[in-house]
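Feature request disguised as a bug report, sorry. It would help if multi-protein outputs had a clear separator. Right now it looks like this:
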Amino acid sequence: MTPGLEARAIPRPERIIPLAFLIGIAAGTLLLMMPVSRTGSGNADFVTALFTATSALCVTGLTVVDTPTYWSPFGHVVILGLFQAGGFGIMTGATLIGLLVSKHMRLRSQLMASAEMRSLDLGDVRHVVRLVLVASLATEAVLAVALFLRFWMGLGFSIPDAAWHGLFHAVSAFNNAGFTTLPDGLMPHRSDLWLLTPLVIGVIAGGIGFPVLHELRTEWRQPRSWSIHTKLTLWGSLGLLVVGTLGLLLFEWSNPKTLGPENPGGRILGAFFHSVMTRSGGFNTHDISALGPDSLLVSTALMLIGGGSASTAGGIRITTFLLLGFVVWSEIRGHPDSIAFRRRLAPDIQRQATAIVLLAVGAVSAGILALAAFVEAPVEKIMFEAVSAFGTVGLSTGLSASMPPAGQLILVALMYIGRVGTVSLAAAFALRLRSMPYRYPEERPIVG
């Protein structure tokens, strides 16, 4: 086969990635519709199975039924397998299989893996793929042991139950899935540092991104040599965690339904935990529906920004948000170039970031308008639910479970678009980027 024919025979990654997720969702839906997946008699209806499979594979965590009681142990295993696959990324798994079988990656395969994982260095794709496997399994194993010990020795679970809950929550935390198998969730354990700390560590580790983990592993002693991507991700994550914590403390300090009854230490812990989980973690220790409008708006903004690129988190990503911030700041200061950490930002990167943000805002806005036609609730709660779905966060004010099937299907679409949309766009932009042999005359329309 000639190189040209071989290139044409390989489907474009912006088509492969959405198709792969559709196949995974379809398989998960069929498995969850089996009678063995549900407790009691009968099987789950189509919308419930589809919603849960999409939420799990897209590592969202939104639910329309009570996960611990509605699904059987087999159903829980299916859900765990789905969000583990979603965390790794279907394209990551396919690339890993290609490495193990052929020990060779074509340029197109590298670009596909790079688009899924947002790797900045094409030559590092092999190392990043290996890091996905090693870092994920190692982190999940450590978290699982820590949670097992807490469930067994601290909370009185039997050894088998402690092992299962520890494993499930470790994988759920690292993959930013937000699913829990505890009968009452985490709300009864809102002050349990030994339980919440491993979950926070897992969510943060999974949410900063694999390229950052790779660079920290090799360059952790030389912060000055870190790439701009790593600096943006780490400093941006720290800043947003602080903003989220202070915002929730400010608006919920005296709320009797959330932080109000806690002591000062408990309030700080609750606010910090919520700030971490809005970055795509999805766990909650307080009633989300009881948050005030101000807290919901702050949380919505954090959910839309999301976590790091190439991570298990969702949203438009920290780097995208901060890149646009540096562009605006450079424009305000009148600089001809956009500068970040003494580095000039490439014009094509600025265009990609702008396109991703605008398309994300458009998708979320369309979802909010569509939900408003089926759901009677305050607009801030509808917006919160839509952004939680699009950002693959999983926090809910309770609307998801009470929506009619049409509303739940809208959330399914938002979860799917939020997970694969930016991935497909990044792949499309990377592959279509080319130089033109000519340039049109320049003109400056009035702006503002």
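(second protein starts here, but nothing in the output says so)
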Amino acid sequence: MQEKSTLLDVNDLKTYFYTEDGIVKSVNGVSFRVNKGETVGIVGESGSGKSVTSLSLLQLIGASGKIIDGQIQFDGNDLMKVSNKEMRKIRGNEIAMIFQEPLTSLNPVFTVGNQVAESIRLHQKEKKDEAKQKAINLFKKVGIPRADKVYSSFPHMLSGGMRQRVMIAMALSCSPKLLIADEPTTALDVTIQVQILKLMKELSHEYNTAIMLITHDLGVIAEMVDRVIVMYAGQVVEQGDVFRLFEEAKHPYTQALLKSTPNIQGTNEQLESISGTVPTPFNMPKGCRFHPRCPYAMKKCENEEPPLIKQTDDYEVRCWLYEENEVIR
């Protein structure tokens, strides 16, 4: 039974891509939830399945991809059962997405103001003048100076930080219940990153919008989120409260990620690299997918894949080191 506050509940999601070289199991049994107004971070190395998970929620995985199993419950609706027409209404209206590089997301031949206003007209059926004014007001809200002038600017005329603010304005134009941000600050200068993250946090509180923040940056995770989902090789390996995860991470992969991240307190402790490499999608190891790189690997890890093991009501870890606890899913 879902909690009353649950907005998004993903259960055993499997998304595969069918290529000439074989089947790529990009997302293989992913389960998590996002509560209303909550900020959840998804972290992991490149190739862990973070972005494919988010694109699966919006059914934007392309012709070669297919969701073969799982459930996606969003605000009481089963997204696996809605029609394409209904999904188009949900995208941008109830679930919005911000991408890493806005220049590839904005149409180069239309002004940024026209694109935001068009989104408002499409989803909210506003008249042209009303949509334009709302777009300008949104530009002001996200901290764009000279909003009237920027409204008539083309994407290439704006800096990366400005384009990202435009994308945030577009994403918030219909007051979505869930905002998916896929590496929203990676291409930006550090000072601009801080401004964008602060802006997202403030707007989340103002609109009571839940955020699903996808990143490889643990510093961003520590600053922004309430709960963390750690992914590795297409699976969730650990998830729970952000403070607990940083204080006492349980999965060897999460521990390795934390040890490879600079300490904000500036200690001289030497950073550690994670031995080995992420397995290729065509050659996933048997048993635990992390065992070839794990310093604690046992014989059981080589042959049997661990389930998510419950530590507390809100904390799970996929590791045989904790098998004495209650096993779930």
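Even a blank line would do. Unrelated, but nice: The first helix runs from residue 50 to 57.
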